[in-house]
Specification:
- There is one protein chain.
- By secondary structure, the protein is of the alpha/beta class.
- The protein has 2 domains: about 5-70 and about 95-175 and about 250-320, FAD/NAD(P)-binding domain; about 175-250 and about 325-345, Alpha-Beta Plaits (2-Layer Sandwich).
- Helices cover about 30% and strands about 25% of the residues.
- The chain has helices at about 15-25, 50-60, 100-115, 160-165, 225-235, 280-295, 300-305, 305-320, 325-335, 335-345; strands at about 5-10, 30-35, 50, 70, 75-80, 80-90, 95-100, 120, 125-130, 140, 145-155, 175-185, 190-195, 205-210, 215-220, 245-250, 260-265.
- Strands 1, 2, 8, 9, 10, 11 and 17 form a 7-stranded mixed sheet that branches. A 7-stranded mixed sheet has the order 6-5-13-14-15-12-16, with helices on both faces.
- Strand 14 (about 205-210) and strand 15 form a beta hairpin.
- Helix 1 packs parallel to helix 3 (about 100-115) and helix 2 packs parallel to helix 6.
- The N and C termini lie far apart (about 50 Å).
């Protein structure tokens, strides 16, 4: 036990939530160890959309952080197969920034490393708390068998978080979303397209344009490969047999750690928007709140209170939006650009 390595904070998962949290803690002078089972740069299933809240929060935290993105100001909405809404933004402060997650995540990690942060490729296995170890009460066991002691453990390891599974073994991974990359025509103006339908169960179809391709995706409560192919056919998109079909979970419920020394952030804590399933803003915001809780010696439940409150409101809104009544209201609103724009501005 005495030969264990010790850190102020051990963070599992080097995606945006983990890297942002680690960078903020390192900047405050804390010694962190960031671990991830993947080697970076690594690909990540995600439309890659940074909402105004996301990129503005990131810019506030790291004013000098530079990354490539495609600015998107055009949006199309399809409901039950009918093209019923088109929105073109004039205000660039409301645009969506589309990033390639493989590059974006790697740059965030590199920022932490450039500040002198410690990172290792490794896999989390388990943790325990020992009150007798007053300085480093949390002991983390890696799959390699090594044990590391720390003051705080932060789980930032995504929707299938192993840290969360140790806290809540029966917690759900959420909804399954499938994605496929399609070549994008160079002469077509890039546009985010969303398709909602009464035949989807609390989910939607989406097209997110990137510089070289379109990310085509679908997910709902009953997603399968067959349902993905069926929706593509209904909306006149081909299923590409020569392209990989990739799947990932998006969490639907927040999980709270019973220990103030163990914190779940980002997808690991179930912090995604309950209606849009957007997760990058909440990854960045909960990472900031976790770092504040640790630096200031406060309870994460207190520091993150506003976000927990937003999750409860989104749970209610989810039931309304994805109901027959909700879709009918959205369909009517979408025919009026000013109302469509007002709803967009309110939500993002």
């Amino acid at each position: 036990m005495d030969k264990m390595r010790t850190y102020d904070v051990l963070i599992v998962g080097a995606g945006p939530a983990g890297s942002v949290c680690a960078s903020l803690l390192k900047r405050a002078g804390l010694e962190c160890l960031l671990i991830d089972h993947a080697s970076f740069p690594r690909d990540k299933i995600c439309g890659g959309g940074l909402t105004p809240k996301a990129w503005q929060t990131l810019g506030r935290l790291f004013p000098d952080f530079k990354y490539e993105y495609m600015p998107i100001t055009n949006f199309g909405l399809i409901i039950d197969g009918e093209h019923c809404g088109y929105l073109r933004l004039d205000d660039m402060q409301r645009m969506i920034r589309i990033v390639r997650r493989k590059d974006f995540d790697h740059l965030l990690l590199q920022q932490y490393l450039a500040a002198g942060g410690a990172f290792e490729q490794g896999a989390f296995a388990d943790f325990s708390e020992d009150a007798a170890r007053k300085d480093y009460p949390v002991v983390v066991t890696l799959r390699s068998g090594e044990q590391i002691a720390c003051r705080y453990l932060v789980g930032a390891d995504g929707a299938t978080s192993q840290v969360r599974k140790r806290i809540a073994p029966h917690s759900s991974n959420g909804f399954l979303f499938y994605e496929q990359y399609h070549d994008r025509a160079a002469d077509v103006e890039p546009m985010i397209t969303l398709s909602l339908s009464n035949s989807y169960s609390h989910g939607y179809f989406y097209v997110f344009p990137n510089k070289t391709h379109d990310v085509i995706g679908f997910g709902d409560a009953h997603t399968s490969k067959d349902s993905f192919k069926r929706v593509l056919k209904e909306l006149d998109y081909p299923y590409l047999t020569d392209r990989p079909l990739r799947g990932a979970f998006i969490p639907r419920a927040s999980v709270v750690s019973p220990s103030p020394r163990v914190i779940l952030i980002g997808d690991a804590g179930g912090f995604t928007n309950r209606v849009s399933y957007e997760g990058l803003y909440y990854a960045i915001a909960t990472a900031e709140n976790a770092s504040r809780a640790i630096i200031e010696g406060r309870d994460f439940l207190e520091v993150n209170r506003k976000i927990f409150r937003k999750k409860r409101k989104e749970d209610i809104l989810d039931k309304i939006v994805y109901s027959r009544f909700g879709l009918s209201v959205i369909k009517r609103i979408a025919h009026f650009p000013r109302f469509f724009a007002a709803c967009y501005n309110f939500y993002v």
